[in-house]
Request: fold
Amino acid sequence: MKFTAEQIAGILEGEVVGNPTVEVSQLAKIEEGKEGTLTFLANPKYKPFIYSTKASITIVNADFEPEEELSTTLIKVDDAYGAFTKLLEYYNQIKLNKSGVEQPSYISDSAMLGENCYVGAFSYIGDNVKLGDNVKIYPSAYVGDNVTINDNSIVFSGAKIYSECIIGKNCVINSGAIIGADGFGFAPNEKGEYSKVPQIGNVILEDFVDIGAGTTIDRATLGSTIIRRGVKLDNQIQIAHNVEIGKNTVIAAQTGVAGSTKIGENCQIGGQVGIVGHITIGNNVKIQAQSGIGRHVKDNEVLQGSPALTYGDYNKSYVYFKNLPKIVKNINDLEKKVDGNN
Reply:
């Protein structure tokens, strides 16, 4: 799909400096721009590239004045980075704007689809499923019985949503994600064997939740595993049964959260963090990558290490730890001197 500089300026409420009819069909970095692409300049360190870029259109801040001749058409806006982000969102909406039902696919007779839905080929929509308006189910996705997916949510190829789960509005579930798998519940018997504890709860994703590729969120044993509004989960994360994650919390890849733990609002959790079960993590907590959390955490704490210490204590301890061989040698030398004096 092609857009002219004039059309793009209209979307961004910007001013065209150059050829208003020049067309673009792709986006590019400014240093990699070529004919037919659109780019932007926001960071001053990339300014030299604007004089060599082959991009047909470049979005710049309104106060930008070229010092050399340009071959690219400019669109001047108040905030070049923000405008380019807006354009990316617009482009993504167009790219993902599919509707209708592709074949072969299976949709139960009891399922209810809202307006302008899309169901891709080889997808499965189970009994009593409710899809809101503009929901997109991409090819080879699975939506189990009694699932509700609300307006404007997207389920990408290969994602699986087990029965009874509820997905809010404007959610994104990426490929390979599994929502509602059984929690890890087993009880030992007198023979030392393990019997499965039925997991009869569900998973609830509130509005504006993003779930990364390959992430698994287990259903509750009883009740619900709850991911609150605005939570963003990266790829390959494990969220166990009955966990609750507060709104606007973000968690990076390969983190694992054990059962029944409650995580507060506006937390930032780095990659490969391990969190034990049945604890509470407060609001506005920051946890550095590869930390191990084995205790309750108060609001506003910043943690690092395994087991995790407060960020300041960890850094102080690390200074001593990396000098440990030298410290031990000094102690041994002192002991020898003391022994010699005796």
Q: What stands out?
A: The first strand starts at residue 3 and ends at 4. The longest helix spans residues 324-341. Residues 314-342 form one domain.
